[in-house]
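Protocol step 4 of 5: obtain the predicted structure for the target chain.
Materials: sequence only (see below). No template structures provided, no constraints applied. The aim of this step is simply to have a reference model before the mutagenesis design in step 5. Sequence pasted as it appears in the construct record:
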Amino acid sequence: MADVLTKEQRSYCMSQIRGKNTKPEVILRKALWSMGHRYRIKNKLPGKPDLVYPSLKVVIFVDGCFWHKCPKHYQPPKTHQIFWENKINANVERDKKNDMLLTTKGWIIVRIWEHEIKESLYDCTQKISKLLTNRKSHI
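Step 4 output (structure tokens):
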């Protein structure tokens, strides 16, 4: 099936997709902040985690179901399949590499899928809150 948009229109649409401050990320951040969990968002760590707790050495990534190939929701595009397959697989491999780099430096990694935030923000915040509380008691 041919794209219904022109090349310029498609290019513009794709340029509007944000890598930072996505809706699921902002929702999670606000919920954690309201619970009293203070975090950092600016960092130079591998993979540029969305939330960082430097003193606890905990990082949180909010992964989009499409961009990070969610096993539950990922649907490969019907056009430009080879391009997208290569791009998405490269994202997944980069995630694995960054996880390994962070783990060897002693960081605890939490990956939350965007659909988990949509389905139950409460479960996500409780999972993170328990981890942070446990880390605080061990440091």
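Step 4 remarks: The longest helix spans residues 81-104. The longest strand covers residues 58-63.
Proceed to step 5.
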